[in-house]
Amino acid sequence: MARRRRILGSALLLLLLAAPAQAQTPADESAFLGWYNRKINTFNDWAVERFGSPASWTVDGLISPAAGQAFANALANLVNEPATALAGLVAGDEVRATNAAQRFALNSTLGLAGIHDVAAERGRPADHLDLGVALCARGVPEGPVVVVPFIGPRTLRDGLADGLFTSVMFFYVPYFVLGEVPAIAAWSVLGAGQVVGRTIAFRQLDPETIALTGDTYEERRLAYLDRRRTRCERYRGTMGSGAP
Question: Which of 26, 43, 23 lies closest to 34 in space, CA to CA?
Fold first, then answer.
């Protein structure tokens, strides 16, 4: 099983590396992809009107503000730090990978699973990096934009990278928090709610891409691409600086 996963991961990376760079404007999409993206964009608009946007989802009124903040801190520790450590390794950024790994170790122990950010108090501030930006810094082309139901636009590179990571997180988080036997039961429950879980994970990795500006699909598409390309260029400018 592990060998198959390694082969699959290598195949996906080779596919991305071999893919040609895509044109930059909505007019250059294929007819089918443009039609599909606009349909899903319309569905997402309906879902936001009916259920609210993922950026607006809160637990206000369900638990106390203090408990909500504690949960948010723990979630950031469990999701963001491993994601950043992995992305740093992919990008060849030893400084960020090490900082994230040390933050995770400190906050998971002394910080009570991340409820308290003791790493920041000890001079190791958070500096989160997602796998899509790391692959961009390595020169992997972004590929076409595909609108994901409930989530919004993603480039092929970002969608595969983040989707693969969040799928792993569905197995990692219950195992880390609950242990082996309870995690099996948790996975069966989480399997029915992957849309919500993936949305939460995407929100953690790059929250500004959840609430994109623009009323039309074309405006949101361009806003998303501008956001991701800007993040990639800024990150490239800080690589090798010796500080997170």
Answer: 26
